[in-house]
Amino acid sequence: MVLNIIDLLKKEIPLEEESLIIPENTKTGLVLVDIINGFCTVGAGNLAPREPNSQISQMIEESERLARVFCEQKWPVLAFLDSHQPDKLEHPYPSHCIAGTEESNLVPALRWLEEEPNVTIRRKDCYDGYIGSIQEDGSNAFADWVKTNNIELLLVAGICTDICVLDFICSTLSARNRGFLAPLKDVVVYSGGCATFDFPVSVAKETKAGLAHPQEMMHHVGLYMAKGRGAKIASEVSFGELEKP
Ligand SMILES: [Zn+2]
């Protein structure tokens, strides 16, 4: 039997996923990580896809589906938007998502979130949304959002599975374990609502620009590592009894 490299990887580090049904009586918050033009819209910048990408398109569709339900129910949503000052590069990446440009704004399919009263927009200038939430006075805007909304279950979607999503998950679970995020209990990553970028080894070698980053493989590894930190990974997300909007 010939296994391709993805099958081999999935055999060596298998990922068990679950179906999440969001319970009606559990206070649930949705975090959307960096679903912005600079990472998702074809041709929008140095780190944007060069051509249409099905994993990224699906991530946007699924994030929008979840966001619609959360907004209908007036449940809390927090959207992180990668936004950098032009004179402050984010090593090792080229200039991207400069504050005030379309690159650092939500993709067209999610732009309506800006008008929703239950949505908090948090701009950040680092990979990790938890670290990016630290404010000048030392408080943490994400931790405050969890506490103010009494969030017990956190659902996470966005891009990139193995970079900004993973870093945020790792910090959030460390903080939860230290007791900083009560009443938060569970953190669930929705795999179909996450995506990462594609930079195959052949292209990386040819252009000598950065580390190889094969999409399917890194997406899987990102989810696997999030699970290793204690996140739950859901392949399906549905809702229990919902109030009629
Ligand atoms: Zn960035």
Uncertain regions spanning at least 5 consecutive residues: none
- Helix proportion range: 25-40%
CATH superfamily: Isochorismatase-like
Q: Provide the structure class.
A: alpha/beta
Bound molecules: zinc ion
Order of secondary-structure elements: HEEHHEEHHEHEHHE
Can you describe what's shown?
Belongs to the isochorismatase family. One of its GO terms (biological process) is pyridine nucleotide salvage. One of its GO terms (molecular function) is nicotinamidase activity. There is one protein chain. With 245 residues, the chain is of the alpha/beta class. The protein has a single domain, classed as 3-Layer(aba) Sandwich (Rossmann fold), CATH 3.40.50. It contains 8 helices and 7 strands. It has a 7-stranded parallel β-sheet with strand order 1-7-6-5-2-3-4, with helices on both faces. Helix 6 links the parallel strand 5 and strand 6. Helix 6 packs parallel to helix 8. It is globular, with a radius of gyration of 18 Å. The protein starts with a helix and ends in a 6-residue tail after the last strand. The mean pLDDT is 95. The site of zinc ion has 5 residues, from loops.
